[in-house]
Amino acid sequence: SGLVVPSVSYELHKKLLSVAEKHGLTLERRLEMTGVCASQMALTLLGGPNRLNPKNVHQRPTVALLCGPHVKGAQGISCGRHLANHDVQVILFLPNFVKMLESITNELSLFSKTQGQQVSSLKGEHCGRAGLRPPPSLVVWWCHPVVA
């Protein structure tokens, strides 16, 4: 389509994060900000207040979040927590890993306090088999970290 999307190089991105960290913009703060902003974008895509109106409980949206074992995955979990707090039905897919980052375990601890559902397998009723659950209204991919 010829659409140009402005971006910065991987090296500049890493440098910006390093400077931000030195000035107090910690990983935890960045995770929270990313989660809030991504959830706001998702809520807009889902129809905003019209879709989440209590009179439309029959249209409660479902969001599937596919997360990996890295900082991007922690951002996805944070997003899921914020969506769940807005009464969105959240299915968080995170495969089982032997070792997880502290940021992942911290975000999972917070997510577990919501009504969101965490799964580690794509088999079963949470995938919409046999009509047990409608397909998700939105799928958000947080599986791959940014690479150079």
From TrEMBL:
Record InterPro entries: YjeF_N_dom, YjeF_N_dom_sf
Ranges for domain YjeF N-terminal: 9-148
Single annotated GO MF: mRNA binding
Pfam families: YjeF_N
GO biological processes: deadenylation-independent decapping of nuclear-transcribed mRNA; P-body assembly
A GO CC term attached to the entry: P-body
Gene3D superfamilies xref list: YjeF N-terminal domain
Domain of life of the source: Eukaryota
Name the UniProt record assigns to this protein: Enhancer of mRNA-decapping protein 3
